[in-house]
């Protein structure tokens, strides 16, 4: 008979429950927006009381930031090794999960208001993403893109296209082919990247 450490079992159950709450929160936010999503609605979806939910996430803001961080974990590449072709695959993947994209886009839009609990998260996230995209562009093109722009100057444009396409696609999915439009943008960056970024 194997011995199970009760602390390890409890910790695993807690982690499982937190993951369940985060999935439910994503669904509720996608349906109602951040402001319309209540802790009570999330708690009800996972069969908890609101007090039970607060045991895992003490405030709505804490839950929101955990939801955003979880969403980024799903999209993470092992070792942080993004490449332009992988970004294209991410855009294709996002086109298959509109609820997640809607949640992210709704929270991003709301976060620009003063005092929004996700404002700091998105501000820090964009600084990190811009730096990451500059690295992707440098690996593909070297110190200058065919247009003459540096990777640092082109990186905000790349991020803006990715997020801006999501809004257009959410509003008119029948008119905006998000993966195809992103591929079109990559061709606008200039000539085909040479192997090794030379």
Describe the structure.
The protein is mainly alpha-helical and 198 residues long. It has helices spanning 6-36, 39-45, 50-56, 60-75, 84-94, 98-111, 119-141, 151-171, 178-188. The longest helix has 31 residues, at 6-36.
Mean pLDDT reading: 85
- Category by helix and strand content: mainly alpha
Number of helices: 9
Unreliable segments of 5+ consecutive residues: none
Radius of gyration: 20 Å
What's the total count of β strands?
Answer: 0
Strand-residue proportion: under 5%
Shape label: elongated
Q: Helix-strand pattern, N to C?
A: HHHHHHHHH
Helix content: over 70%
Gap from first CA to last CA = 61 Å
How would you characterize the largest beta sheet? none
List keywords for this structure.
198 residues; mainly alpha; elongated
Provide a short characterization of the protein structure.
This protein is an all-alpha fold. The protein has helices at 6-36, 39-45, 50-56, 60-75, 84-94, 98-111, 119-141, 151-171, 178-188.
What does the secondary structure layout of this molecule look like, with pairings?
Elements: H1 6-36, H2 39-45, H3 50-56, H4 60-75, H5 84-94, H6 98-111, H7 119-141, H8 151-171, H9 178-188
Helix pairs in contact: 1-2, 1-4, 1-6, 2-3, 5-9, 6-8, 7-8, 8-9
């Amino acid at each position: 008979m194997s011995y199970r450490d009760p602390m390890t079992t409890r910790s695993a159950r807690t982690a499982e429950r937190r993951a369940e709450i985060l999935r439910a929160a994503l669904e509720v936010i996608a349906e109602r927006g951040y402001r319309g999503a209540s802790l009570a609605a999330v708690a009800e979806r996972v069969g908890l009381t609101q007090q039970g939910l607060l045991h895992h996430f003490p405030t709505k803001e804490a839950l929101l930031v955990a939801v955003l961080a979880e969403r980024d974990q799903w999209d993470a590449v092992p070792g942080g090794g993004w490449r332009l072709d992988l970004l294209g695959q991410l855009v294709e993947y996002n086109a298959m999960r509109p609820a997640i994209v809607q949640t992210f886009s709704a929270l991003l839009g709301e976060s620009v208001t003063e005092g929004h609990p996700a404002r700091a998260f998105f501000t820090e996230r964009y600084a990190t993403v811009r730096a990451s995209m500059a690295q992707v562009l440098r690996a593909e093109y070297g110190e200058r893109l065919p247009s003459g722009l540096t990777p640092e100057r082109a990186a905000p444009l790349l991020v803006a296209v990715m997020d801006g396409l999501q809004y257009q696609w959410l509003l008119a999915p029948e008119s905006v082919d998000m993966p195809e439009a992103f591929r079109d943008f990559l061709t606008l960056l200039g000539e085909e990247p040479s192997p090794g970024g030379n």
